[in-house]
Amino acid sequence: MPEWSPVDLLPGLWAGALLLVLAAALRRWYDPVPAPVLAAFGAAVALLFGGVLFGGGILLPLDNLRGHVPFQGLAPAEPHGNILQGDLIELVAPSQAAVGEALGERRWPLWNPRVGAGMALISDPQAQPFQPLVLLAAPMPLERAPGVTAALRVLVALTFSFLWMRRQGLGAVPALAGAFAYGLGGFLLLWVGWPLANSAALLPLVLYALTLCGQRGLRRDAALLAGGLLALLLAGHPETILFGLALAAVFLLDQVRRRPPGTRRPLLRTAALAAVAAALAAAPVLLPVAHDVPRSMRAARVSDPAVHSSPAGGLAPRWLPIAAPNAYGNSRFIHYWGLSNTNEDAAGFIGTAALLAALLSLGARRRFPQEGTALGIAGLCLVGLALPAFVPLPDSLASRRVLLPFVLCLAYLAACALERFRQGEVRRRAVLAAAAVLAGVVVWGYVTHPDPSDPERLAVFRYGWLLWQMRFLVLGALLLALPGRGEGNRWVRTAAAGGLALLVAVELVLIHRPANPPMPRRLALPVTPPLELLRESLAEDRAGLTGLRMAALGRALPPNLASLYGLPDARVYNPMAPQAYVEVTAPITAAWWGELPEFGAPDHPLYPRLGVRYLMTEPGERLPAPWRLTLEDAGAWIWEHPRALPRLFLEGRGRGALRITRLKSAWITARVRPREGGLLDSSLYQDGGWRLLVDRRLRPGHPNGGPFVVAELPEGARRVDLVYRPRAFLLGCLLAPLGLALAAALSVPPPGRR
Q1: Which residues 6+ apart lie within 8 Å of 35 measured at CB?
Q2: 3-state class (DSSP) for residue 637
Q3: Contact 184/232 with Cβ under 8 angstroms?
Q4: Where are the beta strands (DSSP E) in 624-666?
């Protein structure tokens, strides 16, 4: 029976319908995108993600599961999954699944009870709770949604970078080449499944809206700017959001500088009001993030003075992948000897032909609006990228996220050079000189940077990529050097510029398509016997409203992955994991694999204290009493602890009785009969957002409760309610209507004007 069915067309049809709606809206209220350009964008996305959008494939690295218990018996996929994309199945997808479940039940996505002792969901950047590009894919099933979101990210980046460059005075063909260089470039396509791809996709929208506000200043332009800034603020990746906002601010100030003195204030006022409206509307997410980030594991690690970047041994290792992305090998093929991995290091590659065009802009005599600003920003980004090679810096300052503004400026410079070429302003000598310089860098990169541990390793791979790039470089140089400079050859130069745009698109699609391989449907969250037992057993516990959990030892069943099966896991893998919980679980954390905890010490009393009733181990691993072996399977063994404590329990003298009657993610209710008062204890992480009501009256928590919800109960107490309502979220809900009202006011013309 074939795997494919007509239902597999739905993701592609949905993405295509959204593109047509966007094109219609732009044509109606802003600038139209020519039909051939839309078709080119659609074709590029279909080539990249056709197997996912129309073929039933899954854009998640499900093949990577085979490296972990209990999935080692699964048949491999062909091609194999990308080993760099483990976060997409172990971090991003579980967080988004929790958001989808909450919204599907018409609840605010406030709390995720299935990771650790629970953690805030609204402030989890991986969850992207209200990101429009993620919400638009929500009608699709969980395993299909990432493919639609990836397609939307690329389409939005292509569309608005094209429109922005057109508004800068460039022709359609050069703007198309610049849009391809940015929208199909390494930063977006290598990170297309992560939240930072939202920032990359939405930044051109913000720049386009800013340009519209400066050129015509209509109310709907201000509304578009407010909407674009709101979407960018909700992107889910703080570093790239800040880089995007900084780039937009620089371009805004450059626009203001170029305007006559009497017309500067209106543009600044419009931009400021749009920014305030966006910030207020995003407050329900931004304020909880601001509250939780300083308390997170990532913040604790970044603030550690011992954590810093080391000098990398010179300038070349950091900027060389911009011109030769595979000079250090490729993480996709396991062997890589660069600074970090292919995604980090090669995210600045925009295509060999586009790089050639960008080099031509360095010696230009006439520049287009804001081209000089883009050139200056690109230069500063190169300096920032190279600085850690000579000066040790904290990781937060040595970030390669600076490649985001760099690649956008580089793509714009390439488009400007193509427009000058189309108008006959580029000399043949300049083309040949730029081609020679770029060829020298590419050859030097691939020939002189073998693997230090084994110079012959992947030598064929490196020299193959050298020949690959040289082909595109020679073709690009021929297209730019052959046409003459006379006015009669303008149509020839336009055709040559179109050929260069096609060259950019072909190279980038071919180089980046293997980085996002579609996985077969059979790997979509396969249920093995150990997982089936855990689902059935913990479902019974949930039906009995105990709130018990599971965990795994070592690297078995990576943390967070269990939540995709509806299993609450006492482990948590997330940079936003509460540092207080990390410290609590330190006695049973045997090792760290990056930021992924590996549990050990099964005889430690912390396991029953955290409500861990079941432990998964590798087959053959023995645990001490009181753990009881409940399943021996070739994939994994399951052990049960008979004395695991429920989510809420009573402590203290006399204790009493407690029965949980409601166990929702953000609302827990229990009937209690404490004796001589009593102490309510829990395995529920308290970040300050849990409110305790005893017999419907607010009651403070215990001052020595530590990281868990603990409270004294008065005599005669009968009912306890725990409701998760963080103050930062409540304040944000008060501010959001003000932002939406301001955005609406910006979009409504004053009386008497249309």
Answers
A1: none
A2: strand
A3: no
A4: 628-632, 637-640, 648-651, 656-663
Query: Measured between alpha carbons, how far is 635 from 358 in angstroms, rounded to an integer?
Result: 53
In angstroms, the Cα distances linking 223 to 30, 46, 184, 203, 277 are 12, 31, 28, 16, 10
How many residues does the structure list for the chain? 754
Give backbone dihedrals phi and psi of 626, rounded to 5 degrees, phi first.
-90, 15
Answer positive or negative: Cα dihedral of 254, 260, 265, 267: negative
CA neighbor of 396 nearest in space, from 321, 299, 319: 299
In this structure, is the dihedral angle defined by the CA atoms of residues 667, 672, 678 and 681, taken in order, positive or negative? negative
Amino acid of residue 618:
E
pLDDT digits (tens, 9 = 90+) for 261-283: 878 898 999 999 999 999 999 99
Beta-carbon contacts of residue 274 (< 8 Å; ≥ 6 apart): 209, 213, 222, 223, 225, 226, 229, 743, 746
For the beta carbon of residue 510, count every other beta carbon within 10 angstroms.
12
How far is Cα 651 from Cα 667, in angstroms, rounded to an integer? 21
Rounded to two decimals, the pTM is: 0.94
> Vertex 119, ends 114 and 122: CA angle to 5°?
105
d(CA 376, CA 315): 19
* Res 203 pLDDT > 90: yes
End-to-end CA distance of the chain: 60
- Please, what's the b/e burial string for 563-583 (b: 16 or more CB within 10 A of its CB; e: otherwise)? bbbebbbbbbbbbbbbbbbbe
Instruction: Tell me which residue of 681, 732, 729, 725 sits closest to 707, measured CA to CA.
Output: 681
